[in-house]
Amino acid sequence: MCIHPVFQTSKVQPIIAQKGRDMSSKFTWFPKGVQTETTLKMLQAKITKVTVSDVRFPTSLEQHGSDAMHTDPDYSTAYVVLDTDTSLKGFGLTFTVGRGTEIVVCAVETLSTVVVGKTLEEIVSDFRGFYRLLANDGQMRWIGPEKGVIQLATAAILNAVWDMWARAEGKPLWKLLVDMDPRQLIRCIDFTYITDALTEQEALDILEKANKGKQQREDQMLKEGYPAYTTSCAWLGYSDEQLTQLCSTALGEGWTRFKVKVGADLQDDIRRCKLIRNMIGPENLLMIDANQRWDVSEAISWVSRLAEFRPLWIEEPTSPDDILGHAAISKALAPLGIGVATGEQCHNRVMFKQFLQASALQFVQIDSCRVGSVNENLAIMLMAAKFKVPVCPHAGGVGLCELVQHLILFDYISVSASLDNRMCEYVDHLHEHFQSPTVIRNAHYIPPKDPGFSCEILEASVQKYQFPRGEVWRCILGADTPIF
């Protein structure tokens, strides 16, 4: 365990005062529904232990997940389990692509001192305050703040807390959120640094406006599911034979929305986009994704050459930090009918605020692990609603489909009330390792029914793929490979 001894005894102090806590301060802090004796007892559960594992799947061996910038990804996770003094547990994760996962694991272990000893009720009764406590330790924030490894670790812990809360209430996470009073949801959000774009009152107004027709939208989702698009057909490392076979299979399964990885070679991109467009026909949707490959002028020129294939959007055309660059690309491509999508590597709510204020994106791609879990994604979804920009989550990674399905269901039912230009990414990899895997029917996400956040990994898979001592990695690395 890589916690410095001082963290084992010192009391972590938040650097930002807990302001803005007056809204609904007298409001009962539980979702609607009968609070059984068992539920109330579970809310009193005290977190006694945080376990984090480095779990890596060798997806690079078959080029799954490959793109112009990440040519050999091993889909991986820093996997968190929260134990309590009862039978209640919480499971959470954050996504990585191999090397560096051990650094996130170390960050989780260091932050675990903030969590151990608290009851679930202590946390959720002041979730805004707990978020600030976790994200803004006066020393740890120096290697953030609210970005990078620290934010990935924060997300893993918070995802586990949300999973535990949903389990305590006996509901899937999306239903826990949908059943909350708008004022309860507001108290989960840290509005620091974003009130120039979205005030608490504006957020409350958006949620209360969406109450109209809410039950009908929930019933619709339970019956039909949420529309999805597939990325699994066209990873950059796939051969033409693989592309053709996978695309043909997807069409037979009812898929109508497809994403193609681009950015390594223009002529190859033209050939691959032509192949996919010819297969799916003119009536189906095509998106392209460069994974941050280009400079601004290069992005405009390159995508203009691909305009004949009518992509709905170009995803991550340049550096994920270049807000003004994205704005320039958006302006240049608008006459071609091509939007800009980004967000999977957007650090926090503040960056999303600036992207929206600068009209730098036309599709908001939230990620369940890049920012501060559900808490921060609530802020981002509400800002997107105010700016009238559709949310289309990123889900290209292990466990991300399982997580983001809850967020996008909530967004439709309780925030945006719209499906216009909206869809959620789906990748058909590694779902078999989860206790409650994603269910897709007719190219739609079917709402999960099991309590929790759907991110509990099967224990057998954790043991088998744990890095570097799990069975799979001992076989790949060889018995004589030094363990680091």
Report on the architecture of this protein.
This is Mitochondrial enolase superfamily member 1. Its EC number is 4.2.1.68. The protein is α/β, with parallel strands linked by helices and 484 residues long. The protein has a domain at 214-458: Enolase-like C-terminal domain (TIM Barrel, Alpha-Beta Barrel). The chain contains 19 helices and twelve strands. Strand 2 and strand 3 form a beta hairpin. Helix 3 (101-111) packs across helix 6 (148-169) and helix 15 (349-357) runs parallel beside helix 16. The longest helix is centred in the N-terminal third of the chain and has 22 residues, at 148-169.
Draw up the topology in text.
Blueprint: H1 5-9, H2 37-43, E1 47-56, E2 76-84, E3 89-96, H3 101-111, H4 120-125, H5 127-135, H6 148-169, H7 173-179, H8 182-186, H9 200-209, H10 214-224, E4 226-230, H11 240-252, E5 257-261, H12 266-280, E6 285-289, H13 296-305, E7 313-315, H14 323-333, E8 339-342, H15 349-357, E9 363-364, H16 373-386, H17 400-416, E10 424-426, E11 440-441, E12 444-445, H18 459-465, H19 471-477
Parallel strand pairs: 4-10, 5-6, 6-7, 7-8, 8-9
Antiparallel strand pairs: 1-2, 2-3, 4-12, 11-12
